[in-house]
Write a structure and sequence with these properties.
It catalyses: orotate(out) + L-glutamate(in) = orotate(in) + L-glutamate(out); 2'-deoxyguanosine(in) = 2'-deoxyguanosine(out); GDP(in) = GDP(out); glutarate(in) = glutarate(out). One of its GO terms (biological process) is monoatomic ion transport. One of its GO terms (cellular component) is apical plasma membrane. It is a multi-pass membrane protein. It is built from 22 helices and four strands. With about 525 residues, it is mostly helical. It folds into three domains: about 240 residues, Up-down Bundle (Growth Hormone, Chain: A); about 70 residues, no CATH class; about 190 residues, Up-down Bundle (Growth Hormone, Chain: A), CATH 1.20.1250. Strands 1-4 form a two-stranded antiparallel ribbon.
């Protein structure tokens, strides 16, 4: 007897499932508030070299002091990273003159002065992560995603070994602790370490929330569950913009985005362990207790007491799979059989491409002609129509076609903005919005799609592996911005190429529309 048959008898989508999804979606709001925090945590305001002995120029305006102390760039703005070794008073007579002797231009010698009109402080202004240290600023996002990458492998294995709920609780507690330690950082090294550990902890939340919800709902409501969970990511996206707007000091911003983890920890006590996992691990009586609770809440009081016998039969099927795999299952098991091997290789490429292109666009909030806060909020709003459209598309044209074409179209939009001239700002903004929508649609689909591709006994291992590939893409995405020093359009070309190629690979995956969740390897092969 399949688990879906058990769900049909107790109610595959009733009050019980709605309660679980509400609590899990609340927890999911925490994710984008940390995953996209780099946009505000490490924001670099306009700056210029600190000018020594500025009190000597009391008769000059600030504009005139800058004119004689800071060289201009070709576009007429003052340089952010260079200064004159001696004041150039002759520029007061003719400000259009350029310094003829380049030897008098040097790098900043006395630190920097920052514009604090938008940010009270960021890690860039705290530790001068600008100019030659710009790479360290971008690296903070990479450190975080390296942590998420490591956490994906750890939590994927542990949640299959020790249970979904236990690991989800551990993830939230560690996220709260390391998030608060990040806020208390007194050095860049401390921040880098604690942000990496926060990434490890949050990876469990990212990895477990959707599969735990999916394992409690019937086939007909899997798509709805995936889309609903994804919409709360967008809600977190918008809340991040609000939090960053209200809290302009980076220490307290970290506290503000980490605090909601405490509420999630409290609410999680009402979420039961996955009955699918309990049966697969032979804990039939515990699974039966949760299923009876589900039946009562859903008004199915006629739930048969002999159902426990059916669960024992289900357990025997899964244990046979367990023995066929040599008595254990791990990440290596994802590559042991031909069909599962193909699924794992292709889905890994797709997840890398989805995350790489998504974070490449999400961490570039310029080009809208809006403030950074409004741009972040608009990006969150844009995602919701894209998710609603995917709710229809994945049920009409299927998961595979939806996954492939959303990725390809996202890449096309990125590529289009490379060739559209800068003066066409409105057109570029429309294309960027379309690309962001397609990118988010691809991310929404990949979570739903992947959770349906792997069998129950390997689902969290599969999600852990694919999440590892995604976080690898997320870790590399911020560093690609540094390629603009080689060629201004090279970052966009890279994002475009990866998105289109990974979209093409998605065509190699099997369709899962209206197919029961596989329980064991035999269901896949």
């Amino acid at each position: 007897m399949k688990f879906e048959d058990l769900l049909l008898e107790i109610g595959g989508f009733g009050r019980f499932q709605i309660l679980i999804l509400a609590i899990l979606c609340l927890a999911r709001i925490n994710l984008p508030m940390h995953f996209l925090l780099h946009n505000f945590l490490a924001a670099t305001p306009s700056h210029h070299c600190a000018i020594p002995h500025q009190e000597a120029f009391v008769n000059l305006t600030m504009e005139e002091v800058l004119l004689i102390s800071i060289p201009r760039k070709p576009d007429g703005t003052f340089s952010s990273c260079e200064m004159f070794s001696q004041p150039q008073f002759h520029l007061l007579l003719n400000s259009s003159l350029q310094a003829e002797n380049k030897s008098i231009i040097q790098h900043c010698q006395h630190g920097w002065v920052y514009d604090h009109s938008q940010f009270t402080s960021t890690i860039s202004t705290q530790w001068d992560l600008v100019c030659e240290q710009r790479g360290l600023n971008q690296a903070t996002a990479t450190f975080f995603f390296i942590g998420v990458t490591m956490g994906a492998m750890v939590f994927g294995y542990l949640s299959d070994r020790f249970g979904r709920k236990t690991m989800l609780q551990l993830s939230l507690v560690c996220s709260l602790v390391f998030g608060m330690l990040s806020a208390a950082s007194v050095s860049y090294t401390m921040l880098a370490v604690t942000r990496t550990l926060t990434g490890v902890a949050l990876s469990g939340l990212s990895l477990i929330v959707l599969p735990l919800g999916m394992e409690w709902v019937d086939v007909q409501h899997r798509t709805f569950t995936g889309i609903l969970s994804s919409i709360f990511w967008s809600v977190g996206n918008m809340l991040l913009a609000l939090a960053a707007y209200l809290v302009r000091e980076w220490h307290w911003l970290l506290v503000a985005v980490t605090g909601p983890c405490l509420l999630s920890i409290v609410c999680l006590w009402w979420v039961p362990e996955s009955a699918r996992w309990l049966i697969a691990r032979g804990k039939v009586k515990q699974a039966h207790r949760h299923l009876l609770r589900c039946a009562r809440m859903n008004g199915r009081k006629d739930f048969a007491e002999d159902m426990i016998l059916k669960m024992y039969a289900q357990r025997m099927v899964l244990q046979r799979e367990y023995k066929n795999m040599g008595g254990s299952y791990s990440y290596i098991s994802l590559f042991r059989t031909p069909v599962l091997r193909k699924i794992s290789l292709c889905s890994g490429v797709v997840w890398f491409g989805v995350a790489f292109s998504y974070y490449g666009m999400s961490m570039n909030l310029t080009g809208f002609g809006l403030s950074i806060y409004l741009s972040q909020f608009v990006f969150g709003v844009i995602e919701i129509p894209a998710k609603m459209a995917m709710y229809v598309l994945v049920n009409r044209i299927g998961r595979r076609q939806s996954q492939a074409w959303t990725l390809i179209l996202a890449g096309v939009c990125i590529g289009a903005n490379i060739v559209i001239p800068k003066p066409f700002a409105s057109l570029r903004s429309v294309v960027a919005i379309m690309g962001k929508g397609c990118s988010e649609a691809a991310f929404t689909t990949v979570f739903l799609y992947t959770s349906e591709l792997y069998p129950t006994i390997l689902r969290q291992n599969g999600m852990g592996y694919t999440s590892f590939m995604a976080r690898l893409g997320g870790a590399l995405a911020p560093l690609v911005f540094l390629l603009d020093e080689v060629w201004r359009s090279l970052p966009e070309v890279t994002y475009c190429g990866v998105a289109v190629c990974s979209g093409a690979v998605a065509f190699l995956l099997p369709e899962t529309l209206n197919v029961r969740l596989p329980e064991g390897i035999e269901d896949i092969e």
